[in-house]
Amino acid sequence: MTFRGILPPIVLSFLTAAGAAELYDRVEAVVGGEPILRSELMDAVGQLRNQPGFGQLDDLALRKKVLNRLIDEKTTLARAETDSVIVDPKDVDQRVEEHVQRVARRQNMTLDQLAGAVRRQMGIDIAAWRERLRKQFSEQMVMQKMQAKYIGEIKLTPKEVERFYAENRDELPVQRQCVRLAHVRVKILPKMSELERARAAAVAAVAELDKGADFATLAARLSDDEATAGSGGDMGFVRHGILDPRLERVAYGLEAGEFSRTPLYTADGYHVVKLLDRRDTEIRPAHILFRVVPGAADTAAFAATADSLRALAKDSASFAALAAERSDDEATKGRGGDLGWFQRADLNSDYAAAIDGLEVGQTSAPVLIDDSWHVFRVQAREAVRVPNLADDWDEIEQYARSQRMQARMQSFVEKWRKEIHVDIRDPELRR
Q: What is the C-alpha to C-alpha distance for residues 271 and 262, in angstroms, rounded to an integer?
């Protein structure tokens, strides 16, 4: 197992010469009937070449190590099929779309121009390329579910993160065209009358349940969650950390068959929660959602609030103080709204549009992203930078956590590999 499981598919693979397709797509190995093509191997080599544990290898050793990791992945995917581990196609489609948009930004192309580049270089249309990406992302997400199933959550001490950095600092990927951002988030809230209406509806639903009404029937009739209403509010089995923390706390506190008698408020609205079942560390909740959506007048009113806050932020210190006092982003307000460093090509398109053209020290006009207005400040820009513990702790911790998880996962993979036929076709890679 490698860092590949937490990284997106190689974004520049469409630049490979299509004319070499016959040589490029020979079968390098077969795992349980599933081939690993040379194109798949070389894409992974390109992606992993500069990752910790791979950068110092010569070409043959690199290809051998990457092929072995691909065999591990195919083996894990085969086991996932046995375990009936699946992912939601909607989640996969979202990841694909985000990736396509990111590639277009990185190449400074429109989507039409990107489609033309894919056609010229790969000999396929954009739909076929999306389908390839969909397969890659689907497999990545299944791998992540398998890691969660067999390993669970990995927690590291600060000392362990520091040791990982000391041992791997020279192999961490260099970042290019970087910007450091801070922001103030102003969440758009609905009118109090709308909140009261939704809560009253939730209280009425609880009263019906107390009288013996069927939860699934009520969910089908009343819930505003289109994704679950048709299945009686059933949210399926989920592990810790997937749901809204408030909903999760309520659900984990219930016994199987029990429902919450006090409506729960989250960013989506008011919920009545029922626990259908639990197994090991997973729970299977259901809910009836009474959604509360801010109106146009609410959006305009909070835009004015965000603009007034922007006017108060004269410099870095005043911006940080403002974020600490007024921002609705609990994760960043404690550090003055600091969002950290980003590569320009990896920025969310909404973020990128907001800060393009801003000089260091300048703030953006309020930008509407999802359910909030944001005011961004450009803290710094660098053409090239190397991650460090002071500024990139979370990213380095993620690398370290991934390495630990994959080391633990390896014992399971080695067992599964004994149960599946593996045939490495290339003699050079077999030695």
A: 9
Please name which of 34, 200, 18 lies closest in space to residue 121, comparing C-alpha atoms: 18
192-291: CATH number = 3.10.50.40
Q: Which of 27, 11, 5, 17 is nearest to 80 (CA)?
A: 5
E strands, 229-364, are 264-266, 269-279, 282-291, 338-343
Alpha-carbon distance of 288 to 232, in angstroms, equals 8
The architecture of the domain spanning 175-189+295-385 is Roll (3.10)
Instruction: Give the per-residue pLDDT at 5.
Output: 36
316-326 vs 296-312: helix crossing angle, rounded to 10: 140
**Separation of alpha carbons 383 and 390, rounded Å:** 19
Q: What is the predicted pLDDT for the residue at 19?
A: 37
| CATH of region 3-155+397-430 | 1.10.4030.10
Please write the tens of the pLDDT for every residue from 13-50: 433 333 334 445 689 999 998 999 988 898 888 888 77
Give strand pairing partners of 369. 372
Q: Decide if 21 contacts 389 (C-beta within 8 A).
A: no
Burial of 92 (0-12, 13-18, 19+ CB in 10 A): buried
Q: Which of 318, 393, 306, 301 is nearest to 361 (CA)?
A: 318
Q: Contact, 332 vs 339, CB < 8 A? A: yes
pLDDT of res. 192: 87
| The three-state (H, E, C) secondary structure of 354-402, written as one string | HHCCCCCCCECCCEEECCEEEEEEEEEEEEEECCCHHHHHHHHHHHHHH
Residue spans of the chain under pLDDT 70: 1-25, 52, 55, 106, 108
d(CA 180, CA 189): 28
**Start-end of CATH 1.10.4030.10 domains in the chain:** 3-155+397-430
What pLDDT is attached to residue 72?
Answer: 93
pLDDT score at 30: 93
Provide the whole-model pTM: 0.59
Q: How far apart are CA 186 and CA 369, in angstroms?
A: 10
Short-list 18, 34, 25, CA closest to 78? 34
